[in-house]
Every structure is written in C-alpha cells, then in structure tokens.
Design goal:
Elements: E1 15-19, E2 23-24, E3 32-36, E4 43-49, E5 55-57, E6 64-66, E7 72-81, E8 87-97, E9 102-104, E10 110-111, E11 116-119, E12 121-123, E13 130-134, E14 140-141, E15 149-152, E16 158-167, E17 173-183, E18 201-203, E19 209-211, E20 217-221, E21 229-231, E22 240-246, E23 249-254, E24 262-264, E25 278-285, E26 296-302, E27 309-316, E28 319-324, E29 333-338, E30 345-352, E31 357-362, E32 368-371, E33 386-389, E34 402-410, H1 416-429
Parallel strand pairs: 2-8, 10-17
Antiparallel strand pairs: 1-3, 4-7, 5-6, 7-8, 9-12, 11-15, 13-16, 14-15, 16-17, 18-34, 19-20, 20-21, 22-23, 23-34, 24-33, 25-30, 25-34, 26-27, 26-33, 27-28, 28-29, 30-31, 31-32
C-alpha cells in the first residue's frame, strides 16, 4: 500500500509594528506601519484618533504620506487585517514638531529723503502670518499686514530704529528690532526762490531787519527783488526779536496789549493786490488764539486805508478766517476754520477773484472755502495802502499776540505741487513737520531741487 503524506502549513500569529519618526511641521512624513504573520496581503486602517492635517495612511502599503500642516502629538490606533480576515490593532503616536517662528533680515542704510523698500524673511510657526510695524519713525510704513515688506524714507541724519512683529495662526509671536543709518542727501534744498513765478513778497529770518535803539525791529525787509519792506514809525510799537524762537531760528514777537504791528505802505507803495486775479498768502508762526469775539488781524492787505481787506487772515472766537474783497466797493467775504491750539502752524489763504472763491487751510491739510458773491475778474486798479502783520496801523484795537517767523505772498494761486513744496519747506525749516498730514508728499523729508 502506498503511503501518503499530508502537509499542513500553520501560519504564524499576526503582528503589527510601526516606525514613525517625529517630523517637522511642513516636512515630509516618512513613517510606516508593517504587519507580519497571518496570511498576506494586509490592509491598514485607522480605527481611533486623527492624523495631522496634510497626512494620510496608505491602506495598502502602511505608509504615512504627505506633509503635516499642524503641529502636536496625534495618538492613533491602526488596525491591520490579513487575507483570512484576522486582524490586530496597535496604538501609535505621530509627532509633528513646529519649527520656532523666526523673522530675520536687516534693512539697508540709506540717504535722507530717498525712499526705500525692504522685505524680511519669515520661517517656522504656522501660516498664515500677520505682520505689524512698531515704534516706527516718521516716514515708515508697512502697507500690507500679510507681507513683511516695509517702505521707509528718513528725514534726518543718523540712526533710525524700529520693530517689526510677526504673529502666526496659532498665536505665536516673534519681534525683530532693526535699525539703519542715514546720511545727508547731496540734493540742494528747495526754497520759494525756486518757484517758476517769483513771490510778490517774502519775509523770513534771513531777509533782514532794521533795528531801533532798543534792538526791536522797525523794518522787516523783503527777500525778493521787489524792494518792499514792512515797517513801523512809532518805536513803542516795534516788535521784539526773539532769538532761537523755534528750531533755532529767530522770529518777531508781537504783543497785542502793546499794539505791536509792522505795516508796509505809502513808502514804499506795495502794489501786491493791484489789478490781480488771485493771491495766495502763507504765514508761519504761533499766533495766540482769541477766545473773545473781538477781531485780531494776522495779516492784512489794505487798499484804501480803511482797514478793509483786499486779502488777509484774522482771528475771531478761536477760529482763523480768510477774508477778501475784489473791488473797493465790495463788502468783505470770509471763510473760517476752527483751530484747537496756539502752537506753531503754517496758515495759507487763497484768494481766487476770477473764481469768486476764498479758502483757508493749516499745515497742508484740507481747505475750507466758500464761493463769494463778488463778480469774477481782477481786483481794482488801486494801489495798496499797506500790508500789515499782527494788526493794522488803522487801529491799535485789532492787534494779535504771538511769534511770526515767515510770510510769503504770491500774486497767484500755486499748483498743488508748488503749494505742497512751500508747506514742506516751511515745516522742515521750522521743525513742525509732524503737523503735516500723513499723506503729505513731504511728510518724511523736505523738498529738494
């Protein structure tokens, strides 16, 4: 009889092992689980827990695939099932390590008045990021809070310092302190002498004073070639000269109680407002606000000796007004602007006789204006009686108090570009650039040629 041999294969028990190394956030996941024993092939499933976002388990190979987009420890339970239906479960932990949030970079040095841009580098943390600029100097800007790019223009020599902060989506924060050195620009500073149409009158701290025996100013000379000046024939009304009144520059000091005033007229005859279609006046100083209803004159171009304005500015009830009339027979038209303090400011009035409009603004801000009922055209062909500042020789009851550093009168209304140059020139020269609006083209640096 033939003998038969029956071979029975007894499978080994099913086991499940895993090799899941820690992975960096946004790194490539290289872990896997592997079954052994039982009857291959195997399938793998997760029966408990969740993998980090961006990673999944390949059910046929046991490989973890993808790049994690969230950090932390992720406990999971994996089940391996063989061909016969036998299964085994085992707990594992997938660990994702977040790299520290870091912002790096150094903005380059620059030249005063030259615009620059710089983009920092960010790494680690959990995007998206939000950026903020802190303790920034004047002229620094971070236009987009989702990008680490700054724009900057320094208005002064030396070292500027600032901070930039990044915050990730998990609330992690990193701050970087940066600085840059700025050297003087070789550009020539712009002044009103560079206007295409010369000023009608320009009074400043270098145009010259004629002094009386007390050292007070009895004449303030014109910086233009027109030969004009403002004067005073009564010594007791001459304003004092205050040394280094603002930003190291001298200014004239007027005291309303003393009736101090400077006026120019008769000798010489100042025909600034004679037969013109427009005027623009800039006055820099710190005239003291008047809380009462009485009128105080800041600057007045008078044409007939009656104290009526052809053009000018005045204080009433803590407001600054621009006033004008076109013809000698017209009534005076005004527009007012509230002013909250008696600090140093640039006041600008525009008198458009052709457009029948008078307006006023301060420190390069928005203007207040009004249409007038006076006919369109030129002013009367009448010689100016006087140009006076901080009062009028007609009466001593309308004098104003404060310091005046500079006065500029144009026989036309300048373009916005030229007006802003004048504002930038005065603001930086007298150290009040902080008064300029944030969007002013010369907020960060003075104009240059």
């Amino acid at each position: 009889m033939a003998r038969r041999i029956l071979l029975i294969e007894i499978g080994r028990g099913l086991t499940l092992k895993g090799l899941i190394p820690s992975v960096a956030l946004y790194g490539t996941q290289s872990g896997s689980v592997k079954a052994d024993g039982g009857v291959p092939p195997y399938t793998y499933t997760i029966t408990a827990g969740l993998l980090p976002a961006g990673v999944y388990l390949d059910g046929a190979t046991g490989l973890f695939i993808g790049s994690p987009t969230e950090a932390g420890r992720f406990p999971i339970t994996v089940k391996a099932t063989d061909l016969s239906g036998a299964s085994i479960e085992r707990a594992f932990v997938v660990t994702v390590i977040a790299e520290p949030l870091v912002l790096s970079g150094t903005a380059p040095d620059g030249t005063v008045g030259i615009a620059q841009s710089y983009t920092y580098a960010v790494a680690g943390g959990v995007p998206p990021y939000t950026f903020a600029l802190l303790d920034e100097p004047v002229g620094w800007d971070l236009p987009d809070p989702s990008a680490p790019t700054i724009n900057y223009t320094s208005g002064t020599e030396g070292t500027e310092t600032w901070r930039i902060r990044v915050t990730d989506s998990e609330g992690a924060v990193f701050e970087l302190v940066d600085n840059a050195d700025f050297s003087a620009s070789s550009a020539t500073p712009w002044t009103p002498a560079d206007l295409a149409v010369a000023p009608a009158m320009w009074l400043n701290e270098t145009s010259g004073y004629v002094l009386d025996a007390n050292g007070h100013a009895k004449n303030w000379l014109d910086a233009t070639a027109n030969g004009n000046y403002l004067g005073q024939i009564l010594p007791s009304y001459n304003p004092a000269i205050t040394s280094a009144a603002k930003n190291g520059l001298d200014a004239l000091t007027f005291v309303a109680a003393n009736g101090t005033v400077l006026g120019g007229g008769v000798t010489p005859t100042i025909n600034i407002a004679k037969a013109v279609t427009a005027l623009s006046i800039f006055m820099l100083g710190n005239p003291q606000l008047n809380a009462s209803a009485s009128l105080q004159r800041l600057i007045c171009i008078d044409v007939n000796g009656s104290g009526n304005y052809r053009a000018g500015m005045q204080l009433v009830n803590s407001t600054v007004l621009a006033a004008q009339r076109r013809l000698d027979s017209d009534s005076v038209k005004t527009v007012s602007m509230a002013q909250s303090d008696s600090g140093w400011h640039i006041y600008n009035s525009e008198h458009d006789y052709t457009g029948q409009r008078v307006s006023i603004r301060a420190d390069g801000g928005g203007r207040s204006d009004t249409a007038t009922a006076q006919g369109s055209g030129s002013t009367s062909n009448t010689s100016s009686y006087e140009v006076s500042i901080m009062g009028t020789s007609i009466t001593s009851t309308q004098s104003a108090s404060g310091n005046i550093g500079e006065v500029l009168i144009l026989g036309y209304i300048p373009t916005d570009a030229d007006r802003q140059k004048i504002e930038g020139y005065m603001a930086w020269k007298w150290g009040i650039e902080a008064n300029l609006p944030a969007a002013h083209p010369y907020k960060a640096a003075a104009p240059s040629v």
